[in-house]
Records
---
Amino acid sequence: MEKRSDLLIIVPAYNESESIAAVIEELSRVVPQYDYVVVNDGSRDETAAICKKIGATLLDLPANLGLTGAFQTGMRYAYEKGYQCAVQIDADGQHDPRYIPEMQRIMEEKDEDLIIASRFVTEKRPLNARMIGSAVLDASIRLTTGRKINDPTSGMRLYGKRLLNWMAYDLNSSPEPDTVAYLLRCGARVEECQVTMRERTAGESYLNPWRSVRYMSHMCMNILFVQWFRKRRKL
Amino acid sequence: MSLAMRILLIIGACWMLTFVLRSVRRSRMRTEESFFWIAFAVLMVILAAFTDIIGTLSGWIGVESPANLIFLMVIFLLILKIFALDRKAAKLQHQMTELIQRKAIDDAQEREGQ
């Protein structure tokens, strides 16, 4: 697939056959100026078949790697094909691609390394059960880096040129809040951009209450006790 | 416990902690594993430095010899770790199997297509 833009949209997909076609259609309609690539993470349903049928650019993983592995595949592709930056869009329809041009503009204008599409820059983050995890992560990141991140779990992040190589090849680079904490400690320039996100339109979320708690405590442990010790790399 | 023994224990535990921290620092381990090993190494240092803790604990629990309690704790942690490793190995094996199977089927389909 010929490279048309400097920005690559990475769509990791696992068992999203119900929503993937709509997501791809929206990308082609709303942001046709950007290249995109779907990374099929060893789906058991027709996700890959649907992508092939509609002619989507597809990286078809022969086995399941999880979100981190799938996303990193997209990053490798981005780096090796010479893209300047890459943004993650989820395959469940929650991320609205119309904010991408704005995110890219901010990144270029202010020479940022990472733009996080955040629901809570101008809107206040609500105090409910769902947002407890987000609040705890925010506090942990602030404790270890001094920086407030209003929406640490937002998956819609634009990674800049200086991060591409590391995100593409490092064994620890993941599209998760603890990586954001690590990057902040490395002196990365991080900015949040106000967006609205939608609810999942179809399919099932991976997170149930128990998994959410495990995920949050895992992330907190990493941010508070592990990212601390890792050698800061020069960006 | 003799002073020499205590010093040896503390040195040993600190050496282990240094080794673990260096591995984490150089990103030779994944963050998931790093937390366990950092916590484990810190625990060893604390127990080595404050040997009375084990003595008091075994008194409370009613364990005959403090050494037994240390054995119990470490063995329990090791069992948990082995269990986790087993799960990880199973996942790796499954991924390998999928990869191999996928390659064979894709090769066959390619040949059929020709």
---
Amino acid sequence: MENVTAFMEQAYVLIDARNKTSRQVNEEIYRLAEQVPHIMIINPGAKHNLGVGLKAKVDLVFNGNVGTYAAGLIEDANVYIKGNAGWFAADNLMNSTVIVEGNVGAGAAAGMRGGTLVVKKNAASRVGQVLKGGNILIGGSAGYMSGMMMMGGRIVILGDAGESVAESIMGGAIYVAGEIASLGKDAMLAEPGEEEIREIAKLVAEHFQGYDLSQLKKIVSAGKKLRYEKRGDVLEVRGKAERGLNL
Amino acid sequence: MCGIAGIMLKNKDDAGLQIIRMLEAIEHRGPDSTGMAVFDMHGEQLRMVIGCPDKRKLKKVTDKLEQEKIEWGEIRQFPNFCLITAMPRQDDEYQKVLCVIRGLSGVCLYSCGRYMTIIKDTYLPEEFSRVFSVDEIKGTFAIGHVRLATESRVNPFWSHPFQSLAMPDLSIVHNGQITNFFKKRRQLEKRGYLFQTDNDSEVIAQEIAYYILEHGMTFEDALRTVAEGLDGAFSFIVASANAIGIAKDRLATKPLMVAETELAVAMASEEIAIEVVLGSAASARELPPGEVYVWKM
């Protein structure tokens, strides 16, 4: 699913989550995902672990708020959350698209490997921690230690970035359109290239309108501590860790 | 893990019912105990509720209260303890009740205030609600807690909310661990503050009372000062006779969400607890690290 419009153009099979446990809801999702391409869960009630571990070519819509680990560990399934998501939304996302209409709690897209997380409003602390690949787009602000220890991928923050952004970053890049409260350890500002800005602008335009990217700031690893480098086909961790461990 | 919740109603007085609904929604965060403090703005008489787990000590408690000529009210019997309400009329009677409590092993001050009622025990929220008829407790605001014990024993009196013996109508609920708790407790004990348990959370209530009583700080300033001096992971909610405050640690390690509608202000460890009282349209926000905020009645 490219964006919200694409989600809303479909006809959905409904699951009513009211008075059901998360396990019961998920069992229904897994069963239906083998049979139909579009599923909508109504009354999710901010329950936890909804949609976790789903590996199926299906579009899921949660018509309300979801709790922790929503859409975590999913592969091939696209998800649209029409509300807020709690901590660790889209945790370890593999390759699909997750769109959150509201805010996300801490640790969203932790360990993500591919695909796209779009947050229309704000992200709490540590969004994209240990990010490995893929794209995270945040329409509002991102909190403390965004991109903590990320190893690859891109985070684009259209609002402001909180304290210690890109804390101990090892690879990948963070782009910030607003203000940066402070940089994390081993993070540095770099100049984004024109082609890079065009690519980011195209990605942003799929989900957001009217954002000015002319003052986009790019944050990357300064490379003085741990960093990822490619040697042939292999990614290696190079550098010296805090306590003097030579790699 | 522990779960905390708070609610400040704008138009109704069923805070007991609302807070237990919130705690039921987050009971997965703490199976060891449930507790709440409910505040009613119409309080009159100061009530010191004495907790007595051993029913054989009841007579000793009532005899000592009568010796000191302190009025006492109903005795309420529950499966795990009895509660006796003493009603001191003056400051010296307040101190006498504290002396009665300290003089009897295993007896504690369970709840103390004009406006505040604390109830806590080692039940899950649903059973807790039945045992204590919580939905009948009236009040305009309340805080609550479900406990996963990490630092100290599982016991009704070690459950949250905690209060300070030095200051009625003040209580806290806490999620996290205070790593400089021992140092702070020693400092407060040297100043004469009496601790009833070895739970780290109790120090938060005692320190807030200390800054209000001895430094003349406002509730908000005391809360801010205490939060800045704590080490460890924490989110906590504190309530006084006419306010609720929240504080979150600088690393944002423990969750705390807040939402406000025309019905109420609600705060909780998870949005699921806010949604049961305010509905799905109330969009909760996660508080940023180091945040301190107060709502006044």
